[in-house]
Amino acid sequence: MADPTGREAVGAVWRIESARIVGALARYTGDFALAEDVAQEALAEALVNWPREGVPGNPAGWLLTVGRRRAVDAFRRRAALDERCAVLARESGRDGAAPGEEGTDLLWDPDRIDDDVLALMFTACHPVLAREARVALTLRVVGGLTSDQIARAFLVPTATVQARITRAKKSLAAAGVPIEVPSAAERAGRVGSVLNVIYLIFTEGASASSGDQLIRFDLAGEALRLARVLSRLVPDQPEAHGLLALLELTAARFPARTGPRGEAVLLEQQDRARWDQAAIRRGRAALARAQAAGRGLGGYGLQAAIAECHAVAPSVAETDWGRVVVLYDALARLAPSPVVELNRAVALSMDEGPAAGLEVVDRLVAEGALVTSALLPGVRGELLTRLGRTEEARAELRRAVELCGNARERAVLEGKLEALGCAPDRRVGGGGGQRS
C-alpha cells in the first residue's frame, strides 16, 4: 500500500533542495532547459516510487541521480554516444548503483552548492530576459514553485506562465548564456537584476495589486527566503543586505496588517504588539551589515532605514517623521520615481502638515504621474480630507475606488468615502492599489 507520507516527503525535499538540484544538474549538463526538465522528471518518478518503496536515506542524492540518468538518456537520444554522453555516463557510476547511494559524489559536491544556487539565480535573472520572464523563471527553478502556483500568485493563466518560462529558456539558449557564477566584476554589474526580481516578487506579495487578499503570504515568503539565500551567497554586496533588511522589516508588520476577516488595517490602527519582534531584530541586523560596508546606503538600504523608523516607533504620532523625510529625500535623489515622491509627500504631511504634502502631490498630478494607479488619488483624497476640503476629497476617493484592483484596499477607500457622507458605488474595480 502506498504511504501518503512519501508524497509529503517529496514535496518537502523539493521545496528545500530544488534550486541546488537544478543548479547541480545545470552545471553538469551545461543546458539550463534540460537541467530543469530532467529535475522535473526525477520529481515525477519520486512521486511514484517513494510512497510505494519508502523515502530513500539520501533523498536529494536520489533525485540528483535520477535526474542525471535522465540527462544521459536525453543526450543519447540527441546524439548516440557522443563525447558528452560518455562523460556523463561514466560519472553516473555502475548501472546497478541504487539512486542516492553511490555515484553521486561527483555531482553532489557540498563545496559547490552555494556556487550552483548562485549560478542559477544569476541565470534566471539574466538581463537578456524580460522582467516578467525573470520573475517566472526565478520562482520556477530557484523557488521550486509550479507553473500553477506562479499563475495563482500573479492572477494570470497557467498557460501564460508556461509560455514565459519556455520563451525564457529559449532566449537564454539563443543568447548562449553560460550557467555559471559570473566573474566578480560582472557579478557586481548584474546583482542588481537579481535584487530587482526578488523585490518585485515581494512587493506583489506584500501588497497584492489585485484579487481579494491584501497579502499573498506564500509569494512574500518565497521572496524573503530568496533574499536570505542571496545575502549569504554574496556577503560582500551591501544592497543584498539592504534588501533583506527591507523585506524582514516589512514582513514584521504582516501579523497586524489584516483583521480577523482579512480586512486591511491601516498603520495608525495596527496593534504594534502583534508586530514580529524577531523579524524586526533580523531586519535591523541586516541593515547594520549594509551600513557597515561604509559605501553609503543604496536604494534598498534607504527603504530599509525608513522601515526601521516605523519598526522602532511606539506609535504613528511618535515616529521620527523628520528623519523619514530626510531618508526619502536621499532616496529621491538616488532612485527618483513618482512612487518615491508620493511616499515622500505622505511623510512630509506627517512632519509639516497636510498642506506641505499636498503641494508635492499636486505637482505629481500636473506632471501626469501615476494616472492609472489608485495610489495618487487615494493619497490626495486623504490630504484634502485632513484640510477640510470635503467635496474635492470625495472626488479623489471616488477616482481611487474606480482604479483600485484589490478588494481589501478598495474596502478601505470605500470606508473613507462613507465617513465623508458619500455612499460608494461598490460595483467598480480596476487595476491600481491603495497601500495600507
From TrEMBL:
Q: Cytoplasm as a keyword? A: no
The taxonomic lineage of its organism, from the top, reads: Bacteria, Bacillati, Actinomycetota, Actinomycetes, Kitasatosporales
Q: Which residues form the RNA polymerase sigma factor 70 region 4 type domain?
A: 122-172
Q: Which chain regions cross the lipid bilayer? A: none
What family is reported? Belongs to the sigma-70 factor family. ECF subfamily.
Instruction: Tell me yes or no: is Transcription among this UniProt entry's keywords.
Output: yes
Q: What is this protein called?
A: RNA polymerase sigma factor
Q: Where is the RNA polymerase sigma-70 region domain?
A: 20-79
Q: Which Gene3D superfamilies match?
A: 1.10.1740.10, Winged helix-like DNA-binding domain superfamily/Winged helix DNA-binding domain
Q: Which PANTHER family match?
A: BLL6612 PROTEIN, BLL6612 PROTEIN-RELATED
User: Residue limits of the DUF6596 domain?
Assistant: 190-290
Q: Which domain of life is it from?
A: Bacteria
Keywords tagged on the record: Sigma factor, Transcription, Transcription regulation
